[in-house]
Amino acid sequence: MRTIRRRxxxxxxxxxLLSLFIMAFLLVAGGLLLRLSSAETDIAYxxxxxxxxxxxxxxxxxxxxxxxxxxxTANWTPTPATTALDAYYSYTxxxxxxxxxxQPGYSIGSGTGYNPxxxxxxxxxxxxxxxxxxxxxxxIQARAIYGPMAQ
Length: 151
Prior knowledge:
It is a single chain. With 151 residues, the chain is α+β, with helices and mostly antiparallel strands. It contains 2 helices and 4 strands; from the N terminus they run H-H-E-E-E-E. The chain has helices spanning 2-9, 14-66, and strands at residues 83-84, 90-103, 119-131, 137-150. Strand 3 and strand 4 (137-150) form a beta hairpin. The longest helix has 53 residues, at 14-66.
């Protein structure tokens, strides 16, 4: 009986056991912090790629709007149809003709006078799609009114 009681009162090896528990806890905590850091990096990359895709879609809208005119009265895809901005991003513009709106007597500027025939405005819808890495994609739609054009 004395030998059993003596073993429980003997503290040899307890420091080794305690240090192993502390090392295991630090290993788990380090792994969790490393995973958290990796997740933050992934979030940052996804944000950059999404923002780049948005700017590519905005470039597509600019290409479409810059090519508007009174002779474009059908659905068309501006040139270039698809353009790679660099190795990672590309955009695709598309413009749809919506119709015309006439406004009689609209004055272009001060002192130009009244036009009894009126003026016409051409309405277009421009769609821009931007694509980036890891299937990051954004789409923007804008409405553009071209005019006034004398009738």
